[in-house]
What does this fold into?
Amino acid sequence: MQEPKGNTKSQIFNTASRLFAASGVENVSMRDIASAVGIKVASIYNHYSSKEELVEGIYDFFLENYDSGRLVKEEYIPVLKNGTKEEVIQVTNNIFSEEIKEKMIYAMLVLFSRIHTDEKARDRYSRQIDDSMRFLKEFFESGIEVGRFSEFNVRGVSMVFLSTRLFIAQSITVHPDEFIDWTMAEQEILAELMNLLPFKY
It folds into this structure.
């Protein structure tokens, strides 16, 4: 789903995301959200039938926008063939637009904080893992096919890349005040992970 349309619905969605991320879904009431937005509680129910629907909307926003900053194969093949090593490794990273970056981080905090207690959160999380793993394997296999990499254990290296990024992302749920440094941390980690890839040139 794209960012909710309509000013009031967007305000409800964005405010709820921030409050849920900061205090936990269980500790935030619809009244808290309405108060923060500056509307009556009844107004929320014009857009969301329940808190659960609002929470699921946040999950879906994260999952459906997760790939928005990722290149498709037709776009990354030229990078594999002609890009610098830094440009090649950057393809494995999701660069969210400034328009949705903060919303994605809040949505991620909500989703990741509930994967052990909410089956719907776990389902979205599992789908995101599967999608990311498929992308990494396809990317690395394409790199071998076009001659940029020597043969290597694609599945093993893909798992290292993915698990490292997941550790960074999940660490934000422990220290959400540090999420501003998330992108910088990923850049530093990617620079180290680049040493795992057997570049031919």
About this structure: The domain at 7-196 is CATH 1.10.357.10 (Tetracycline Repressor; domain 2). The CA atoms of residues 172 and 181 lie 10 Å apart. The chain has a mean pLDDT of 89. Residues 119-145 form the longest helix (27 residues).
